[in-house]
């Protein structure tokens, strides 16, 4: 936990004899000096406040990709790309249909799908819900709350789970890598711990991107502008994924997959989905690691609240002394 060091006032030598009674014994009085409430409120408002020029600038900048897509689609270049796509689209649709058939066959023969798939209780007998048939990746028959009885709701929840799982994996990587690089001495960040970065911005501090002096990017902006940028950066790709199956065709880009797995050069640049058998297994691995990342973030929150340190530092301290550096010791159980 963070320790608060006593502040030595310049007059401490004069007042110490008075406060200790002259014989070294402290009086049963603790003197605290609190900042004026108006100043604290003003500082808080200044951190969260942003000018209308900044907001307009962020919104205009966010509109550039959409405007560029529209401009290219209506240009001679866009018309040329659309003609090329129309020539190749029929073959692409046939290949996509064949791939879906092969994927369905691979899913039916896979160990991770169907009635014989692994269940969340393993060999323990249990009356699993009949509406969970193992059609989707990561279906272990777990639905104690009955949230998946409605097929439409089941598909919607699966879409949300995939979305949060992917963002959780990216966020976990972003939380761990800076702390690891700082501990190894590769980069020395002003704030390598994930939660302290947000705290620094709430205090109105300026942060250097990647620890490079002067490279601020959004590090010099307030929390409101950063929050707007974060929403735009997260909503933009998800909107493109959700609507981009056909919306990107004016640019000559064909996406052969569905909403959750669009595929194509944008969403599968490494062509990992070329093998239907491997692709169905990768779906299971993705959702399993995504669930682990979401649970890991719950651990990150608890660790930050209890220890005030980063997850990597907590892990190193636990490995060095597992008996005294663990959750139970933090909760003062022993």
- Based on secondary structure, the structural category is mainly alpha
Rg measurement, Å: 28 Å
Mind summarizing the main beta sheet?
none
Uncertain ranges: 1-46
Number of E-type strands: 0
* Percentage beta strand: under 5%
Helix content: 55-70%
Please write the string of helix (H) and strand (E) elements: HHHHHHHHHHH
How many alpha or pi helices?
A: 11
Mean pLDDT, nearest integer? 79
- The coarse overall form would be flat
**Distance between termini?**
18 Å
Characterize the structure shown.
This protein has 334 residues and is mainly α. The chain is flat, with a radius of gyration of 28 Å. It starts with 11 loop residues before the first helix and ends with a helix.
State the main characteristics.
mainly alpha, disordered N terminus, 11 helices, flat, 334 residues, single chain
What would a concise description of this structure say?
This protein has 334 residues and is mainly α. It contains 11 helices and no strands.
Write the layout of secondary structure elements.
Layout: H1 12-19, H2 37-48, H3 52-73, H4 76-109, H5 151-184, H6 194-202, H7 223-247, H8 264-267, H9 276-307, H10 311-320, H11 327-330
């Amino acid at each position: 936990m963070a320790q608060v060091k006593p502040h030595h006032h310049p007059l401490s030598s004069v007042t110490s004899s008075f406060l200790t009674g002259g014989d070294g014994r402290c009086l049963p009085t603790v003197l605290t000096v609190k900042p004026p409430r108006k100043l604290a409120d003003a500082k808080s408002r200044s951190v969260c406040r942003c000018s209308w020029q900044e907001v307009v600038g962020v919104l205009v900048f966010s509109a550039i990709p959409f405007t560029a897509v529209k401009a290219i689609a209506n240009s001679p270049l866009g018309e040329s790309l659309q003609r090329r796509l129309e020539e190749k689209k029929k073959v692409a649709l046939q290949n996509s249909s064949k791939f879906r058939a092969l994927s369905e066959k691979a899913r039916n023969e896979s160990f991770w799908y169907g009635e014989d798939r692994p269940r969340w209780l393993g060999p323990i007998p249990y009356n699993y819900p009949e509406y969970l048939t193992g059609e989707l990746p990561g279906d272990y028959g777990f639905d104690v709350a009955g949230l998946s009885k409605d097929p439409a709701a089941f598909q919607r929840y699966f879409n949300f789970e995939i979305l949060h799982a992917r963002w959780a994996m990216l966020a976990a990587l972003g939380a761990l890598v800076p702390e690891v690089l700082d501990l190894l001495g590769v980069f020395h960040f002003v704030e390598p711990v994930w939660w302290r970065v947000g705290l620094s911005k709430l205090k109105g501090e300026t942060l250097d991107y990647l620890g490079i002096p002067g490279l601020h990017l959004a590090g010099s902006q307030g929390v409101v502008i950063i929050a707007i940028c974060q929403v735009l950066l997260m909503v933009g790709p998800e909107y493109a994924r959700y609507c981009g199956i056909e919306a990107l065709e004016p640019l000559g880009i064909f996406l052969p997959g569905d909403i959750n797995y669009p595929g194509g050069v944008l969403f599968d640049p490494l062509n990992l989905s070329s093998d239907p058998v491997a692709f169905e297994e990768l779906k299971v691995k993705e959702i399993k690691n995504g669930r682990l990342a979401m649970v890991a973030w719950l651990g990150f929150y608890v660790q930050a609240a209890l220890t005030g340190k980063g997850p990597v530092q907590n892990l190193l301290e636990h490995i060095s002394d597992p008996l005294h550096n663990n959750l139970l010791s933090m909760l003062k159980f022993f």
